Amino acid sequence: MEARAGARVLSVALAIALFGQAPQPVGDQRLRALSMRYFAELWETDPIRATGVGVHDYDGKLPDFSAAAFAARASSIRHYLGDLAAIDPNSLGAEGSYDRRIFEANLQTSLISLQTLAAWRHDPSYYTSRLANAAYGLLARDFAPLRSREQSLLDRERLMPAALDTARANIEGVDPVTADLARRSIAGTIDFFASAVPAAVEPAAPPAFVAQFKVANDAVVAALHGYDEAMEAGPFAHPIGTYAIGPALYEKLLALQELEPIPLATYERLGQSALRQTEAEFVSTAARIDPKSSPREVAAALGTVHPSPADLLKAAANDIAALRAFVIARKILTLPADDDVQVVPTPQFARQTTFASINVTGPLEKTASVAYFEITPAEADWSPERREEHLAFFNDYALPLISVHEVMPGHYVNFALDRHEQLSPIRRLLPSKTFAEGWAHYAEQMMVDEGWGQGDPHVRLAQLQLALQRECRYLVGLREHTEGMTVAEATRFFEEHAFMGEEPARREALRGTQDPLYGYYTLGKLELLKLRDDFKKAAGSEYSLEAFHDQLLDHGDPPIAIARKIVLGADDDGKLL
User: Do the bridges between strand 341-345 and strand 356-359 make them parallel or antiparallel, or are there none, so unpaired?
Assistant: First the structure.
């Protein structure tokens, strides 16, 4: 117990060094101390997450995956909610009052995740993906000398077989869709440890270390195979239940996410309206390109012009450079000095549900600075038809817009700006998905509106198709979880309304089963467009797009209900949409 307490004190000290001294209001001081205590405990109990945020006190450890540990975590969160409630709201300054709302919603969401959703009981890939990330997080960045990171990896791998034994005991029931996804995710994780991890470690390591590592890594691969066999013989052979969370829980999670209640009927109506509007613009834009072909045929023709598999990553890197020049020339926003992005293939274990994503350093990382723009390649063992369908998604008109979303001026720029801001622990470590993904999706439309593509309708059509994809996510997530929409029906919905091929459409439909609220892309964009309109009205003749973006991105990634109060002040009408 004394060792645990000592480790926590060190983490709090680290947090104080990272975030600076407490602000003046008494309530803000109490809130900051409480949040730092919470994060210190979180890092200690979840070493994988600690590594991810850039705290390296626990790099050689794994979480306790026992049922008792999950119960203890839930109990701890309830205590933090009680301590938070004890802070007098009148003792808080404006920033503290905002952070209190963010912290409380995050705690409540975490409690629901642990107790109600309980992926640790119902999703076998919860454990394998976490173990893969435990290794990947140590190998991906040079936050410490390679030998030190390899030693931490060895320490973690020695703990993994026991962790998988615990996982077997925890899994109680898996629904058929989650079982299918988990089966493929586990296979990817086995391949990751059998091939990618040794390839990263063994060439540069001393022979004595390689021998130790091989024993540990072989044991991990064997344990993963054993885990896979146990799942196949048990939960996968006898799937039960459903992935759907139901309307009551969906509405509750949505309110916690947005910090404002949104009735599901209103939420669906907004999504339907956005989809209809985008579809109409898509049809008219397609007619400008080729009035003799159907919109689907015109969209399909975009996909025929794409990089080769060998040139895909290079094309993305070239696009990023061109986008940066455009942002500067058009005064879109004030860019940070950081410009350290490498384009790499998506790790094998993450390819089932991801086309492209940005993998940035942890928000508290002090050494490593490289961000990775991960793009899922066409696999060598795919059929020619499947490879072509996959590459069509990365066509020459859409790929730059994907880079807009993930890198310039989307996620990466937002992340790099945050690193230079004096944010509270809550603001730095609990970003809003709606803000972060809404900003990146908003950026796609905004960049084309500002002249990216020089008015080429092919570029606009690609932007609109990406918007349709996100609007379909918005509605599919809702309907899969509250209205009984099946994966097959959701796949057809993406095919019909986003003009997607069957393979990527099914991948999107499957993602919705595991991420109910993945409508946050469209929801965030709609909220930001209203915020921009309100800012423009308030600014009058002093309005500039650059000023709006600079003010918006100057406060971290709070829920947009909070961003409105910060950016608009007394001019906030309190309406998200």
Answer: unpaired
